Amino acid sequence: MGFLLIGNFLGAQSLPLAQLVKETKGILWWDPYRNVGLLRMGDSTAALHPGSNLALIQGDQILDLLSFSLKDNVPSMDKKDWELLLDAMGRTPDQKKSLGDNYRVGAIIIDPGHGGRDPGAKATHTIDGVPRTLLEKDITLQVSLELNKLVQEAWPEKKIVLTRNDDTYPTLEQRVEIAHGVALKPQETVLFLSIHVNASLNTQAQGIEVWFIPKDYEREVLRNTQAHEKALPILNDFQNYEYKVESKNLSRYILQSLEVEVGKDFSDRGLKESPWFVVRMAKMPAVLVEIGFLTNSEEATRLADSEYLKKLARGIYNGLSKFIADYDALGSY
Ligand SMILES: [Zn+2]
Q1: Mean pLDDT of the chain
Q2: CATH classification of 2-96 is 3.30.457.10, yes or no?
């Protein structure tokens, strides 16, 4: 009995992580599907993995927390380990960095779908009494060039890269390579934005969709890391999780902003999750915007109008802008 009491006094009792975090100014994200988490405390971040009792501080310092485990599926640890974790996070040199050293968006990749020998979706409609054949590759390029203009003007300090700026066909692998080839400073992240036009056998289908990567899709997202080998799978999990949260937030902002911009014409088909090749392979927050259905005559008529395409570009830009404002202020999500 006495031992139990002493144990409790020493903090040996395991407490839910959420409860421990509540007493601090920290923020905890938890992925219940894969039981990995991310704790943010000031400028310091810890990836948490109760399955192996490990915490990874700032991507390279590993902490063994013996009491850290899942109790009835709830990540928990005792006070002593909690203090160790806080101490380690406080002691990281990064905590002393100023706000300006936070992670920020350093580059934006704009990817106009298809091009060259690959026209993408194709449909012929009578517009203003004249039959016109519309190609997805032309529409995605127009919107992307327009978006590029807005983004260049807004953020001259960021690297803005188009995967194509004319009627050529980079392969999907080449597009991803272009994105990964962008030189970033240590604390910079890159966003990947792919623009497509939809098609369906159902000619009634119309509206805008924004796709991001599915929650349970495993990716190898790490690159150029100097982290300890033992930590790699965990760090990868953590990066995956953060990218997914970011991709979903970016998707939501873009969809909301498109709704504001083209409201009356807008039919919101919502956010979608899919392991599309480009979205899947991009080791960065990545979304794919389907700006409408070419197979629907009403929507095709809108998509044939360059003023409408400008509005779409403006909507995407506004969503991007909101995301970047949040991201650059917080240094992450
Ligand atoms: Zn497409």
Answers
A1: 79
A2: yes
